[in-house]
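> forwarded from #structure-qc
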C-alpha cells in the first residue's frame, strides 16, 4: 500500500493497488422504488458499458425489506472509481437521489479474491 491517499466521498482513503469495491445502500419508499431502480439501472448499465475501469455494478433489493437497495460496484482501481464520479450517467443518477428517504454511508473495500490484482 502506498503512503499517500486522497478524498473519496468526504473520507481520506489510502491509495491501494487492488480492485476497489464500493457498497452503497439506500432506503427508498415503495411508491418511489420503481423510479429509483430505473435510474440505478441506467447508471449500472452505463458504468459497465462505458467505463473500462468498472468491472461490475450490481443493483440489488434486500430480501424481506424491498425498501433497502444495495449497490455492489467493482473497479479496477480507486483511480477508476474516481473517474466514475465524473461521468454523465452518474450525474443523471444523482438527480434521482431525492427519491431516497435515507442514504447510508458508503463502504470502501479492497477486493482480494477473485482477481484482486486484475
Amino acid at each position: 500500500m502506498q503512503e499517500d491517499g486522497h478524498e473519496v466521498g468526504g473520507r481520506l482513503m489510502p491509495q491501494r493497488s487492488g480492485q476497489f469495491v464500493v457498497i452503497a445502500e439506500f432506503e427508498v419508499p415503495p411508491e418511489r422504488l420503481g423510479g429509483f431502480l430505473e435510474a440505478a439501472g441506467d447508471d449500472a448499465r452505463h458504468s459497465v458499458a462505458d467505463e473500462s475501469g468498472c468491472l461490475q455494478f450490481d443493483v440489488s433489493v434486500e430480501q424481506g425489506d424491498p425498501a433497502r437497495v444495495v449497490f455492489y460496484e467493482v473497479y479496477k482501481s480507486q483511480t477508476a472509481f474516481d473517474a466514475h464520479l465524473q461521468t454523465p450517467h452518474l450525474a443523471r443518477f444523482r438527480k434521482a437521489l431525492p427519491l431516497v428517504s435515507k442514504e447510508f454511508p458508503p463502504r470502501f473495500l479492497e477486493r482480494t479474491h477473485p482477481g484482486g490484482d486484475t
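QC bot note: The radius of gyration is 14 Å. The mean pLDDT is 89.
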